Predict the structure.
Amino acid sequence: GQSLEQPSEVTAVEGAIVQINCTYQTSGFYGLSWYQQHDGGAPTFLSYNALDGLEETGRFSSFLSRSDSYGYLLLQELQMKDSASYFCAVRDEGGGFKTIFGAGTRLFVKA
Amino acid sequence: ETGVTQTPRHLVMGMTNKKSLKCEQHLGHNAMYWYKQSAKKPLELMFVYNFKEQTENNSVPSRFSPECPNSSHLFLHLHTLQPEDSALYLCASSQGDNEQFFGPGTRLTVL
């Protein structure tokens, strides 16, 4: 079947760096996205990788290795407001608009 | 109104009721999506519409019936639901296969 695996929970302290990993097993691959969702809120887009390598957007960076079916989201200079759930998602190449999501990683940032 | 809006935000219904969820996007996007989000599970894609045409039906039971009268509006008609259908139902939109913008969701409870 098709699946994305990511840790269920991660805890870190303010100012630290945290990496959230995602491995995927899908029939097609058209890019890896990351979304953030605060409690009671809607998922919001963070980043997208279609090609191997690192994409940097401010404090957040995302990495992809297509040969390893693996990616990660790197959050630097953690702030309390970064406490949220983070989802990786794969666009299924064959489905056009079909997107498969991971179960999400709950990040707790402590003072 | 901006972005993606959903109504109602909360809905409690009995198994014999018929209700509808509404989604509206003010972003000029061509694709709209329905997702189901249950606790500790991945977001499950239910339906996708592109320019009002359904492009994905992810083996969703017939008690869920989508309707897309135009590119800005999406409905999910519900009838004879089961308690296990209780979840957060999220609507999203995108321009082509780019990043998805999510609405705040409808929290549905089936008694």
